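hi support,

uploading two proteins for the ticket. first:
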Amino acid sequence: MNLKTIAVLIPCYNEALTVEKVIHDYRAAFPTADIYVYDNNSTDDTAKIASNAGAIVKHEYSQGKGNVIRAMFKDIDADCYIMADGDDTNPPVPEMAEIILRGEAEMVIGDRLSSTYFEENKRLFHNTGNKLVRSLINTLFDVNVTDIMTGSRAFSYTFVKTFPVLSKGFEIETEMTIHAAANNLRMVEVPTNYRDRPEGSESKLNTYSDGFKVLKTIARLFKEYKPMVFFGILAIIAMIISIILAIPVFNEYFQTGLVLRFPTLIVAGFIFIVSLLLLMVGILLEVIAKKNRQLFEMFYIRTKR
């Protein structure tokens, strides 16, 4: 394990108040690791402070955490990647790297919600949003992950090099979890302590706009990874509406022998055809999704080291 390389990845935007402490903490926890700070257009002294603290500082000019993670994953090669936030809310946990280096998981998730998160985090809607996202993903993708939104994670080389980063912002953690769940990659959760930001440090996460982006990402990935279920649900809804509209028309026909509501019958027939089309789209996309999973599995095996 001592021969393995570890890279600590710290995406930062205006974290001058906390980045130095974060670097020192992770240096103490992972003394042999290379610590990278990617500055994302900070307007304070984040980059300068990080450089003086001994980190390898790089710049990513496309705004958004997802863009920063994409650059990190593309640029850096290591046997184990530790991702940390620059706001000093998640202390380092060496056990996360040990699990990756032993080959026991492709992604280790730092679980804040089982420890001190709800006591330390004073933003009510953040807590509610975490619970909502957790319930949605666990239900839709048949997994049991406690903390979906945490920025404290560890990854294997294989995960990093086979993960297609499509999100641009804070929805990146959601995308990582769904990618692992949909492709049957091993995930392990390790409880981590959480401490709220120190006074003067401000969160860049907008509860409403970023929360909407996360929900939009879940819907998009559900459609892409499970198209049969997604379009099947829409088809069933359309078929039920069609039947509800058609029942009175047929009742009148059987009673009188006349069709008295032609417009309703036409609309019901049109919606019924739409439901069949949705079902066919789901079947075709399911075949494509299965083929993509097969291709991913072959690529994943070739990338394994």
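and the second one:
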Amino acid sequence: MRIHIASAAAVGALALLALTASAAQADTHKGDTVFTSVTFSKTTVNVGISAAQKLTVTATAKDNSGIRDIYGAKLRSPQDTLLYANTADCTKPSSTTRKCAFTFTLDANDKDDYFDLQNDEAGTWHFTAEAAAMDQDFYDLETSATVKVKRYAKLSDTKASPEPVSRGGKLTVTGALTRANWNTNVYAGYTGQSVALQFKKSGSSAYTTVKTVKTDSAGKLRTTVTANSSGTWRWNFAGTGTTSGATAYGDGVSVK
């Protein structure tokens, strides 16, 4: 397995290290040390093929003797890839607590190659860190703080034809669903996925799902519907555990 280091444990220079990570364990602790809160700037990080995405994790720990420091903050992928924080900003809100904000960069095509996401790393990531107290108590956070890191998906503009169409006539609606391939840094057709075809009647503000269509072997969508009212047609993909959702630009159709 790989470990990508975006900084040294003390937040120093960037480096890429090939090490062996131990298997994930449950949270462990000694004494009264606790993490009172762990929050993420995003609950889901959707990463494409070029633009890096930032994530801030803010952790607050408490112990009656005071917290010496919060060490080893990192993100662990489903493949046990480890990403250390780029920066850490720590404060002492009280004599018993310490609060640190850690920033991470997730990128599928980093030019410096210190961290390059791979497809099998999409899914649930864990934030891990250890809070060390002044009296030698500690809390080792391993499994309880999670965030989703997903491959970014896109839907092409919805196309509905013919336009205009006679009332009761047939409309052919097409589109295409692609998602980021982190291994090759291209957007490729996402095959075999259920995508909702939605319609918003003219004068209405809400879309309703008319039917669900599966993408073909190239990620393309094509279906036929009956046109009864003027309005806008669009495709909507809910996403999966490893891939973001997506909504296409709609195509307005007049019914004559």
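thanks. also noticed: Residues 1-24 have pLDDT under 50 and may be disordered.
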